[in-house]
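User: Hey, quick favor. My workstation is busy. Could you predict this chain's structure for me?
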Amino acid sequence: MGPQMWLDRFRVINELKQPPATPILPQARSIRFQLDRPVFFVVDGHTYKGQSLNVSDSGLLAKCDRLPEIWTEGQLFLEAAEHHLQINARVARLQGNDVGFAFSIVTENDRACISLLIRSVLDRPLPSDD
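Assistant: No problem, here it is.
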C-alpha cells in the first residue's frame, strides 16, 4: 500500500471517528434451555424479583418486576435440583421487562452452580435461532 493510500485511509477513518471494521467470525450460540423458576438479583441490598425464562452456560434470561441498570453486577439467587444457588452475574441486556444476565465466573463455586443449573434442565432445550 503506497503512502497516498495510507493517507486516504487515515483521512477516511479520522472523518468517521471510528476504527475500520474488523470482520467478525460467526460464533456458535450457546444452547439455551427452558427454565421457569423464581429468580432474585441482589445488588447492594436492593433485590430485583423475576421469573426465569431460559438459561445457557453463559447466562440467564428473566422477566423482572423492576429493571436494574445495564452493566450492574450482583448476585443471582435461584433454586435448581433442590439446591439453593448463588451465582455472580451482570446485567448484559435489557429489552422490555426482560433482563439478560451474563454469568461472571469468579470462583469455582460459580462454575459448579452453573453446571448444576444446566444439568437440571438438560431435557428442555429450546430451538436454535440459527
